[in-house]
Target: Pantothenate synthetase
Amino acid sequence: MKKYTSISSIQEFLVKEKRRGKTVGFVPTMGFLHEGHLTLAQQARRENDIVVMSIFVNPLQFGPNEDFESYPRNPERDAELARSAGVDVLFLPEADEMYSGSSIKMHVTERTQVLCGSKREGHFDGVVTVVSKLFNIVGPDNAYFGLKDAQQVAVIEGLVNDLNFPVNIVRVPTVREDDGLAKSSRNVYLSDSERIEAPVLNKSLKDAERLIREGEADPGRIISYIQNRISAETSGIIDYIEIYSYPELTPIDQLQGEFIIALAVKFNKARLIDNIIIKAAQEEIHHV
Ligand code: PAF
Model:
């Protein structure tokens, strides 16, 4: 596995490989890798000649009261895990290398006023800035993003459409425990009893999907159904349960076309998020 810290050297390597006709799959991360990242890398491995992973804790996407300084970092362990997942090239730039000028500011105008975006002002501006730069540096054919963070996927798809990046965005389903709980580094903060309750989040989303399949088309009734299940069967406090068209993330009156049901629930020491994306008009349903 090759490691690069400078933009010019990774570009030089990848330009040569692409001239030889090699396809490039790209997995952008902020490091401290977990199974979710490794699943993205393994899928990229299967679908591309060269797999590039970036590890860069992007200061621009952290708010002033967020945990940029204390964000967990473990580059040695990350390198081992990346290698084992089939990564060929690791890109580990310093902040000075990534942000040498300041003449451009990117601002996302849609898809960010709802869900987690509404609570993290400027977060997605920082995400699209770094992802644009990384796309320009790596020039990937395919870039892999996990649907656990479905709003990020929607924002990146908007970015690629609006700015015509020649990159195929691959939506990768959420990795789950056997009981359906979405894998997250925060799950360790659940108490034993909360851990037993937590799969209700995914179960209620799946049961809501069944109700929709059976003909329920009213978003309000689906939201109430999920609210009641989570309140009755867990000790968690519901932060939000919302339904929007996907990936546009605009409100809908009827459960038609492609839409997302997304939720966030606060337990004592962990706030969990989960979602399901449903294509109601067609047979194909994305379980995420
Ligand atoms: O999902 C993440 O880890 C980050 O938001 C990303 C896409 C690597 C950009 O910094």
The chain is about 35% helix and 20% strand. The radius of gyration is 20 Å. The CA atoms of residues 173 and 232 lie 28 Å apart.
